[in-house]
């Protein structure tokens, strides 16, 4: 596994986490 793919994976997981938090926030605010 290269450093670039590792960084890409970290960025993907971070974005996924933010997406889930935003989804829960909107779901509960409605």
Structure at a glance:
By secondary structure, this protein is an all-alpha fold. Helix content is 90%, strand content 0%.
Describe this structure in words.
The chain is mainly α. It has one domain (1-30). Helix content is 90%, strand content 0%. It contains one helix and no strands. It has one helix spanning 3-29. The longest helix is centred in the middle third of the chain and has 27 residues, at 3-29. The protein is rod-shaped. The relative contact order is 0.12. The mean pLDDT is 92.
Features:
90% helix; mainly alpha; 0% strand; 30 residues
Structural class: mainly alpha
The helix tally amounts to: 1
Roughly what is the average pLDDT, rounded to an integer?
A: 92
User: How many domains, as an integer?
Assistant: 1
Q: What's the number of extended β-strand segments?
A: 0
Stretches where pLDDT falls below 50 for ≥5 residues? none
Indicate the percent of residues in helices.
Answer: over 70%
Largest sheet, in brief, is: none
The coarse silhouette is: rod-shaped
- The string of secondary-structure elements, in order, is H
Terminal residue distance: 42 Å
From the alpha-carbon coordinates, what is the Rg to the nearest angstrom? Answer: 13 Å
Strand content: under 5%
Helix and strand arrangement:
Elements: H1 3-29
Keywords: Membrane, Transmembrane, Transmembrane helix
Transmembrane segments: 6-28
